[in-house]
Amino acid sequence: NVSILIVNENFGCGSSREHAPQALLRWGIRAIIGESFAEIFYGNCLAIGIPCATASKSIINNLKSDIKIKTTHNLTLNVQEQTATVNGEIYPVKIEAGPLEMFSTGRWDATSQLITQKDSIKKTISRLPYLNNFMI
User: Fold this and answer.
1) Could you give the CA distance from residue 110 to residue 48 in angstroms, rounded to a whole number?
2) Which helix (H) or strand (E) holds 90?
3) Which residues have a Cβ under 8 Å from the Cβ of 66 and sit 6 or more positions away?
4) pTM over 0.70
5) Taking a C-beta distance cutoff of 8 angstroms, is the pair 18, 44 a contact?
6) In sequence order, which residues have a C-beta less than 8 Å from that of residue 40 and are 6 or more positions away?
């Protein structure tokens, strides 16, 4: 079961440390849909793989209303199609082009990229005189 947090505007303001998104991730939040996000918070979410989709105030209110009305609900976020669906109702959301590409290709995780490119990094290090004998 994946949890999606629905928020209002400027969510994450004052949460410039990476601990805020990490706490949400540990709490089970796997995506956030909101009107807008604080820039540093947004970047920290992206760095750990939490997509943050934006939507208008009216769509956010509709999502909240649809969830409150039903005793059971099923909310999904389709990153590729940029839609949120709750109880069969489909709402448009927006994910910026850069983060969308990162989530689509799996390149949001910088550490795994470095690990998978270890041989290429070693070749580059061997060609740079100031990094000769540098260990990875």
Assistant:
1) 9
2) strand 89-92
3) 73, 86, 87, 89
4) yes
5) yes
6) 12, 15, 16
How many whole angstroms from its chain centre is CA 98? 11
User: Which residue's entry shows tokens 């999606």?
Assistant: 4
DSSP one-letter string for 31-72: EEEES-B-HHHHHHHHHTT--EEE--HHHHHHHHHHHHH-SS
Residue 33 near residue 83, CB atoms below 8 Å: no
Q: What is the pLDDT of residues 15-37, one digit of tens each?
A: 778 889 999 999 999 999 999 99
CA triplet 2, 80, 86: central angle to 5 degrees?
45
45-72 pLDDT tens trace: 998 999 999 999 999 999 988 777 666 6
The residue written with tokens 């943050």 in the block is: 52
* Torsion angle (degrees, nearest 10) of CA 31, 34, 38, 39: 60
